């Protein structure tokens, strides 16, 4: 594609935003989305096989896939297209109107958040099925136990030589979804709506830190003397989203979030960003001020409307 064609495509995207996509996101009807076939011994989030609609990361293809999401009338009945960008559009920081930039960012990241949750739901449902068999028969199949132990290692749930009911309780507390509004708000906060150096160069949406010379990451330009951390980088945006969700689901600092989520499930209440955000005071050194900002992003941008959307059937 020539430079002129690329520019023309970008202009079409912006024109579409201005003409069609509304400022607020309306709630879509709930439609259950199918999940990938389960592997016998390996959790879905470790398989590493991209969905069929995943892009190659080529800038032109990213714009085309984001355009596919923007083409969905979010005020109408329907589902979010399975358009998965491997990285953000290169021109996102050049979009001058803030609302346009926010829509572009949301269109790129929302399908990835939904896909990551879809994978988690698949694993959670399998845990529930194995738990039911364990409770009725007192044992599980060998390949199911092997799979459970793999999941437990990832989520740092200790398992002895024999399975115990406690293992299922601990796993179900951790293997659960993150509301899209919360993930989007945190990604927006940490990446400046996709314009940060870390997001554009390292697909780092959530500002996760890593340490060590061998760790894959980007050294912050303003890193204080004597500090040796990096901002964790990723090959693809979906990897960043999955890493963020695993972090919330297993780190000791976010136990209160997991307990709050479990309580909501027990009460048959919906899992929403505003319901869980107050449990994230430990996510940032700013504490409650960070929580207030996340709540503000969700409310001001109407992101809670996205907590009930699903991916279109594949």
TrEMBL record:
Transmembrane segments: none
Chain ranges of the Mannosyl-glycoprotein endo-beta-N-acetylglucosamidase-like domain: 178-301
Pfam family, one: Glucosaminidase
Domain of life: Bacteria
Secretion signal, residue range per the UniProt entry: none
GO MF annotations in UniProt: amidase activity
PANTHER family per UniProt: PROTEIN BAX (PTHR40572:SF1)
Name of this protein: Glucosaminidase domain-containing protein
């Amino acid at each position: 594609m020539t430079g002129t064609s690329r520019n023309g495509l970008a202009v079409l995207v912006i024109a579409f935003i201005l003409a069609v996509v509304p400022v607020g996101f309306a709630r879509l009807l709930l439609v259950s989305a199918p999940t990938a076939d389960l592997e016998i011994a390996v959790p879905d989030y470790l398989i590493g096989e991209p969905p069929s609609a995943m892009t190659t990361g080529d800038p032109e293809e990213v714009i085309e896939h984001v355009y596919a999401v923007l083409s969905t009338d979010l005020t109408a009945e329907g589902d979010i297209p399975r358009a998965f960008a491997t990285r953000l559009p290169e021109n996102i920081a050049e979009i001058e109107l803030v609302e346009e930039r926010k829509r572009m960012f949301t269109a790129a990241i929302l399908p990835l958040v939904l896909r990551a949750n879809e994978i988690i739901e698949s694993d959670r449902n399998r845990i529930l099925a194995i738990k039911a068999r364990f409770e009725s028969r007192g044992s599980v199949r060998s390949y199911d136990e092997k799979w459970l132990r793999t999941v437990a290692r990832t989520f740092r749930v200790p398992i002895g030589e024999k399975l115990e009911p406690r293992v299922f309780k601990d796993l179900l507390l951790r293997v659960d979804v993150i509301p899209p509004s919360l993930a989007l708000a945190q990604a927006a906060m940490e990446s400046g709506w996709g314009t940060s150096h870390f997001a554009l160069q390292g697909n780092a949406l959530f500002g996760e830190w890593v340490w060590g010379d061998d760790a894959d990451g980007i050294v912050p330009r303003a890193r204080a003397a004597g500090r040796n951390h990096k901002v964790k980088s990723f090959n693809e945006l979906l990897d960043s989203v999955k890493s963020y969700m695993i972090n919330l689901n297993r780190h000791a600092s976010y136990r209160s979030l997991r307990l709050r989520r479990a309580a909501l499930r027990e009460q048959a209440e919906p899992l929403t960003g505003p319901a869980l955000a107050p449990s994230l005071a430990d996510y940032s050194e700013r504490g409650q001020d960070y929580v207030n900002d996340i709540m503000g992003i969700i409310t001001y941008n109407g992101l809670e409307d996205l907590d009930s959307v699903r991916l279109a059937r594949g």
